[in-house]
Amino acid sequence: MIKAILFDFDGLILDTETTEFIAFQEICRQYDYEMPLDVWSQWTGATDSVQRACRHLEQAIGAPLDHDVIRSRHGEVFRGMIATADLLPGVVEKLEEGKRRGLRIGLATSAHYDWAVGYVKKYGLLDYFDCIRTKEDVIRSKPDPQIYREALAGLSIEPQEAITFEDSLFGLQAAKAAGVYCVVVPNALTQAFTFEQADLRLQSLLEMDLEQIIARVTRH
């Protein structure tokens, strides 16, 4: 019996991941370089994606770069872009459905607490969550399952009693390693991946209501 639903944050509630790529692309163009989408996509869900991108850019242009300066520039561009971003379609609807069904709701993200919860508060979502686990709560980030194990413990449920929503390969791998049902909702950066381990793949959180999702992922 499903007793809880969990959510990733970046790329699932707010499309920070696509925005992060676009912001870094602006940096790359200052060096007459275009970052290939398929290269960046490999890092989606990683906590060090910008550091990896800095190393890739340095190798691509064949010249040393000040990574701290690049990260600072990227951060400025990114923050300016994300400040006006909207929640992804279906987020509020799924949270409302979960509450109506009496399910516990958790947030399990590799993002820092101040970052994720800051936006959760900004969009008025904080009261939906019974448990929030972030980067500060674990030693190992996704794809390690530790974040999900911590969230399950916080919700006082077993892995088979939860469904989580993810958008990245790292997130999917973490969820499945923890024994949790996983519904993948790819964003623009991750839609090319097959997500073979997923219990269900949706194009949007609006594609299917929660009752249908629960029936689909638990029927086997």
From TrEMBL:
Residue ranges of coiled coil:
none
The protein's matches in Gene3D superfamilies, at most eight in alphabetical order, are given as:
HAD superfamily/HAD-like, Putative phosphatase, domain 2
Name listed for the protein in its UniProt record: HAD-superfamily hydrolase
* InterPro entries for the chain: HAD-like_sf, HAD-SF_hydro_IA, HAD_2, HAD_sf, PGP-like_dom2
- UniProt superkingdom: Bacteria
> Pfam families, from UniProt?
HAD_2 (PF13419)
